[in-house]
Amino acid sequence: MNYKIGVISGDGIGPEIVREARKVLDAVCKKYEHEFTYTDLLLGGASIDVHGVPLTDETIENAKKCDAVLMGSIGGDAKTSPWYKLEPSKRPEAGLLGIRKALNLFANLRPAYLYDELRAACPLRDDISAEGFDMLIMRELTGGLYFGARKTEEIDGVRTATDTLSYNENEIRRIAKRAFDIAMKRRKKVCSVDKANVLDSSRLWRQVVEEVAKDYPEVTLSHMYVDNCAMQLVMNPAQFDVILTENMFGDILSDEASMVTGSIGMLSSASLNETKFGLYEPSHGSAPDIAGQDKANPIATILSAAMMLRYSLDLDKEADAVEAAVRQVLKDGYRTGDIMSDGCTKVGTKEMGTLIAERL
Ligand code: NAD
Predict the structure, then answer these.
(1) In this predicted model, what pLDDT tens digit does every residue of 240-278 receive, in sequence order?
(2) Does residue 290 line the site of ligand 1, with CB under 6 A?
(3) pTM for the full model?
(4) 237 known ligand binder
(5) Which residues of this protein are annotated with the site description Important for catalysis (predicted)?
(6) Main-chain dihedrals φ then ψ at residue 177, nearest 5 degrees
(7) Rounded CA gap, 161 and 252, in Å?
(8) Mind giving me the DSSP string for 147-160?
(9) Atom 8 of ligand 1 has which residue's CA nearest to it?
């Protein structure tokens, strides 16, 4: 099969880690006889350098022509980079928010998986980490408190700020369907997280999620209040498969979940719209402090490419193979600096990519 993939190499370590992900995708093509046609797209600082703005209509239009987009990371060092002398709406990060909005990427997926080989980096107690965990947080990305009307005013001489948390049933239904679809490809469990004991928006959330659940009789649905979920994530993370939640709760919980894996260089993510299309990127930033030094861990980007195979291209077998190759390299004792431990062999960005590609 032939697939069109947009590639945003981005800034900092972006080009280095994307190069390794492409190396692995090339190995997938060879093994499974697919053809990927790549289109380079400019975003963030790289786009500012060429066009003076972090995102152009050309990038959006070309991205729309692709089956999926793979991205490194964007941004630079805020203290030294000239990009940060520009007004906020012209800086690299504005390009990322802009492309998410332009492509209507409302569903943000962040897996948090604890590799046995990396357990030493997990900050949880040994008896908890021994069980391992493999969860996926599905966060609504384009609604809720971050997108509602807001104002700051003086009422009777008192400074007052107001933010609005609003969801309509359509916004809830589409993200819930995504979560159930993905649960069907995993362990068939969805835990919907809300604050339905207090918030009207959460009560509607719960109702609509229950309606959607009726179409997925094989999936077990549970509900949890967000404060309890924050505790459960550190007490018993093994209980979770798919966590479905709204924008702000998801923002906070996904950071908590990613931290308990202990390794920022390993965490992938995907942002999806109503179609199969998605933007796939590591959860970390552009790490300008180590850019160009062959020190960056490319695994988060390689695992993001695996998510792309699974969710946008429906290539489950190929995605499994990439994930297995990553596990094998860790088992064989190879580590980049960020995940290095005693008795392992330290490798650079390029060698890590090559080792994973070889194991395919
Ligand atoms: P960062 O994630 O880039 O770096 C934090 C620390 O983690 C650094 O010490 C870095 O060296 C290390 N690190 C990150 N990724 C690594 C990897 N793959 N391998 C080894 N070490 C890694 O966060 P930051 O320093 O706060 O931000 C740097 C820039 O990235 C900023 O401009 C920020 O706005 C941008 N950013 C972009 C994205 C994105 O593109 N989606 C996300 C977050 C931050």
Answers:
(1) 999 999 999 999 999 899 889 888 889 999 999 999 899
(2) yes
(3) 0.90
(4) no
(5) 146, 195
(6) -60, -45
(7) 21
(8) TS-EEEEEETTEEE
(9) 287
Please choose, from the candidates 284, 280, 283, the residue with its C-alpha nearest in 3D space to the C-alpha of residue 5: 280
Catalytic, 241? Answer no
Whether the CB-CB separation of 179 and 187 falls below 8 Å is answered with no
Residue whose CA is closest, atom 44 of ligand 1?
285
DSSP type of residue 344: P
Is 255 considered catalytic here? yes
Q: Which domains, and CATH codes, for the chain?
A: 1-106+267-360 (3.40.718.10), 123-260 (3.40.718.10)
Q: Is the CB of 286 under 6 A from ligand 1?
A: yes
CA 104-110-111 angle, 5° bins:
145
Catalytic residue among 77, 134, 163, 251: 251
Atom of ligand 1 nearest to the CA of 298: 18
The amino acid sitting at 305 is A
Q: Is 289 in the pocket of ligand 1 (CB under 6 A)?
A: yes
Residue 218: the pLDDT is 98
300 in Cβ contact with 113 (< 8 Å) = no
Which ligand 1 atom lies nearest to the CA of residue 288? Answer: 28
Average pLDDT over residues 54-81: 96
pLDDT in tens, 10-47: 999 999 999 999 999 999 999 999 999 999 999 999 99
Q: How far is the CA of 341 from the centre of ligand 1 (A)?
A: 21
Summarize the chain as % helix, strand, coil (round to 5).
50, 20, 30
- Cβ of 162: how many Cβ atoms within 10 Å? 11
Q: How far is CA 196 from the centre of its chain?
A: 26
Q: Residue 352: which pLDDT band, with cuts at 50, 70 and 90? A: very high
Supply 115's token pair.
């590799």
Nearest atom of ligand 1 to the alpha carbon of 76: 32
